[in-house]
Fold each of these.
Amino acid sequence: MSNIDNIRNFAIIAHIDHGKSTIADRIIHSCGGLTEREMKAQVLDSMDIERERGITIKAQTVKLNYKAKDGKDYILNIIDTPGHVDFSYEVSRSLYACEGSILIVDSTQGVEAQTLANVYQALDINHEIIPVLNKVDLPASDLDRTKTQIEEVIGIDTEGAIPCSGKTGEGIEDILEQIIKVLPSPKGESLGDLKCLLVDSWYDTYLGVVILVRVIDGKISKNMKIKMMSTNQEYIVEKVGVFTPKAKDINELNAGEIGFITTGIKVLSETKVGDTICDVAKPLKEALPGFKPSKPVVFCGLFPVDSSEYQKLKDGLAKLQLNDASFSFETESSSALGLGFRCGFLGLLHLEIVTERLEREFDVNLLTTTPGVVYKVHMNKGDIIDLHNPSSLPNPTLIKMIEEPWIKATIITPDEYLGSIIKMCQDKRGVQTNLSYSGNRAVVNYELPLNEVVFDFNDRLKSMTSGYASFDYEIIEHKEGDLVKLGILVNAEPVDALAMMIHKDFAQKIGREVCEKLKDLIPRHNFMIPVQAAIGGKIIARETIKGFKKDVLTKIHGGGATDRKRKLLEKQKKGKARSKQFGRVEIPQEAFIGVLKIQKE
């Protein structure tokens, strides 16, 4: 049994690409967690997609043994967290399971928006923080400037900041010694009743649901009867283990330790992240303060390109949901696209990752509709409806008002780009709340409507600042907005997959752009096709796709307007009118994709 004073639990937090996973690799290597042969870069990023994109999506844990310079043996539990804003709920869970954090800042780039967001989360729960300046081997590294920024923007003392390089391994020993000296050991009663936090859970094909736990008090051992407090379900522990990064079975986990258990649960929904686990024989009176469940903020429809792949898509979604409880889906049918699913995501990167995993792991060709956010529709009768899909908006005469979600955005940028960023935020109906400087970098805060941000805000921010600006957001509240449903009609038939909620001031412009784009993308038919954008019954933009004209007069020789010619032209006109009335306009996939692209541009 390990002594609780010799345990250190810590998370690694940083902005995207500042070197969290690489430094985790170095720490694992220097503690001998894996042999030379087993080491590979970003050893904790286990999904192919994480390795290809070079981002961390799931938080991972490792237990290491470290012999410090004072001769004592210590146990280090590392949690490597994602840096991307869409996965910030993974970060908040990881921080709850630790007592301290290592804050990594890239010494060539300085403090970025996500650095701030993650540090504030750690400070909120009273973490000790060790600042580490990474990438000192690069010529562009500027330690003094980075230290000043950390002090000015975040307000942490950087006297003990450790310069290091994840690439060369310089400074890794110092980090390990600092972890032992500065970070507190976990508080907990090894002999008390079991109190345990459920940090994460995922599905394993052989073991069922694997649950990652942090034991606060007591101990959890094999064959013990445990209870989940939120569902009141009881289970028997079948397996207890730790990751060293390889999974290793042990007999028990004691207070202060992080490890995994399996209990034969088959569905992930029974394991609520943030739940408290206790002993059936000695139940607890109150649960631990868990963390806020993640709420999907972006919704979009996923449809199989080939309708025969519907079942395959359904199975794929169900399997992905086993490993990612933050993503939700329900069936939806569309007259233009057939059967599909309405899915909720934490943000656009999350959407991109899920769709890519579906296409890659389950081999389904997908079509995604316009991403949208959740609106609160207040009816005249007083009830409130959550609107996920614009096509199901109730009749406007029954609606009192519509509220949309707003976010608080923090943007950090070199000051030469500030003007264009402020203009973009104003175009997106933003309200500036604060602006401060640290050296030549501006930190600007805006309140913005989420539906303006969800589409292309990050891409445009990166392109207008050559990638130097960074952006982080959190949802604050719903506010009333002057919103309308923009419908698209092709040959007088509404196309539900292209309907969108939009602010009244932008409706005309977007409507015109969508019509122009569809005019180029829908192939010509034998008859003329009107393409219209409408708000309710009012048409606000129109384009016409000309029909093919067959020359029916070629077989008649001789000049002049004869009855015979007139009859043929009349007959052709009637035929066109009939085919326009009964003809179906097939809207090709490219047209949907093209319209989604406009909204991005």
Amino acid sequence: MKKLISAAASLAMAASMVSSAVPFATGAADATKGFELRTFLDVNGKEVSSTISADAISAGEVTIPVGLFLVEDTNDSQTLSAQFTVKSSDGDASNSYVKFVKHKAGSDYFASAQSFTLAGSSGSTKTLVGFAGKIVNDDEDGDYFSATVKGQEFAELNSKSAGTDNAFGSIAYTGPTSGTYSWSGDKSDSYPVCVWDVVFAKGTPAGTYTIDFCKYAPDADYPDNRACMIETAAGKMTDSNSKLTLKSLDITIEGSGSGTTAATTTAATTTAATTTQAATTTQGGGSSTSDEVDEKFIIKPKDATVEAGGTVNVDIICENGSNRKAAQFVAQVIDANLPIKGATSTMSTVRCSAISTKPEYNEINGTWYCDTLDSGEPQEIDTSKAVAKFAITVPADATPGTYEWKLDRFHVVEDGYNGVEFDANLQTGKLEVTGGGSTTASEEGTTTTQPTTTATAADTTATTTATAADTTATTPAGVVYGDTNCDGKVNIADVVVLNKYLNDASSYDMKDQGKVNADCCDAKGGEGLDANDSDAIIKSIVHLVDISKGCTAADLK
């Protein structure tokens, strides 16, 4: 069975959830829905308080489970999107003290089986019960929870797009193609949509910590699409049109935390040191989304030389003393933190040489993701080849000298959906800036004085043009699989359009090209549209399935 990936393009669904130019019917003008953040049960099924005593935070780490609840009178939500972060005016909500850990509905949550009666079914389960679904009785494997909506949840240390340096959580859900679903309980908010642990480090300062929703328009071209949004057949419900209510949660830490433990143990990996342009400069560490650093999994740039005003392609090499296999890589270099003022970076070759299948990196909000599964299995890492290649462009007025730099972030996902993620041990490489001459690439010997996105000779594959070239070999001309609304993009808006059509083809006039594009699973030229196509597009958005050349139903399992 194909395994899912735990960090699948962390912000992909959050960024793609906002739909673009999707037509909706009018009506239900006065209808409203709401998202509420509330404390949830702990793993023993006990109620959790939103107040943390001074003794508790002084003694050690404290976890407060927080559920996102949907409040609605009618079960007609077609898509759900929510983003939130943590703030404090009198405490310290930075990554040094607060982080989020996600729990997916349907995954194991409770320490022992809890009894439930849901949607006409009775049973017991250890899994997290979501707002829409039922208990499925299985005599062989025990009872489990089956959700009737699909989606992805993410937890990050921060979000550049949301404008927060603090912990960040997001969800993106889509309903069934039938357009309706059954609540698990007697109300929509009897059970949460999903749950995040808000983890406070030992010594977190006293104060009020607000788990608050992010309120912004992720796409300037579509300002009515919001970070928090619900879509129904009647239209969009957002905070900006007053059809979506948002209720935050306050968590209080009493007393006076020392603050020393968290600061000394996490500052090195969460705060980038300030750097200035000089002959020799060292950049500090960057941020990360995973919880553990593997000291034997070492990521280091090769030493390279570049002429001021030029670009150098730098190989990122990997030492894998723990012999980890990879299901996904996540890499990031933040331009503002490069040791040379005005320098910029991008992935110079999107294909990963260190994996035998040479999977591609995909960029989302400044972070590069490479899903490395082959037939659902994590792959061996060839440490003799570059795990990534970054092009560093140096401004013409850069001061000649030798600079030390390293990636702001690199982690490996070792297994499937509930697998373990590890931060790499990030080490520095040297970048020598000269005042004249040619720019030398680190491994391939490429010379250039202009920014380049061309792949090296060893890979013989261009960056973004490679995908297009490969696709045209097997994809019918003019077909962009997944682009249901024919806007040139593949995102959750395409799922909305397809689901509307599948629900009632007579009420939605889909373009003929849109039908061909949407027919991406077991393609029949637009004649075989079904729920598998919708599922394939959703999974492609978070890089679980590649539909650029089409896919089969077996790929979705």
